[in-house]
Amino acid sequence: MATSTMLLFPPNISNSLFFSSHTPLFKIPTSAAAASSKTTSCRRLTFTVSASSRALQALIFDCDGVILESEHLHRQAYNDAFAHFNVRCPLSSTDQLLNWTPEFYDVLQNRIGGGKPKMRWYFKENGWPTSTVFDSSPESDEDRAKLIDILQDWKTERYKEIIRSGTVEPRPGVLRLMDEAKASGRKLAVCSAATKSSVILCLENLIGMERFQGLDCFLAGRLKK
């Protein structure tokens, strides 16, 4: 009976994956011991498909964390927004601007999804902040929502500036993987839960218009399926 297998690779081996010009493409070890012996002893991983396996037909890339390491870029954009609007939370240090450290943001982004929910959760825990948006901490739901909307909109534009700056590069091996997969006849797709405009911006600047327009499928934003 044919079975399907999903292979998940952690970020620290992203630079070691490559396509062979010979088909078939993937060979799945028949035991955990065999898999361990092949993946721990070599820096580069080579895969071929056995005759009994189904050939790989497509690669689907996420954007954040796959095509680019973006966590620190989002954190930078949030902190720039907090500095721009002089955001200070009463239950933290009132003498210091709000600044999310790498250690804190790593926990936060794995706990709370979405930029606005992140800030709303943080302000509930640490007190609604003073800022240049309001003279005092907002008390009504309407004012709190307005503050978050303004911070998020500014943060989004700042993130776009960072992406356009030319200092951001895709993760090592991603472009080569895309090109070799395409050359071997496999289909390529990008599917992300991030906003469509953000993903388009990243793809245009990081993989180039030719690769972007050559994708067989592109999905982003809120999708039902």
TrEMBL record:
Q: Which domain of life is it from?
A: Eukaryota
What Pfam family does this protein match (any one)? Hydrolase
Q: Which InterPro entries match?
A: CbbY-like, HAD-like_sf, HAD_sf, PGP-like_dom2
Q: What is this protein called?
A: Uncharacterized protein
**Species name for this entry?**
Penstemon davidsonii
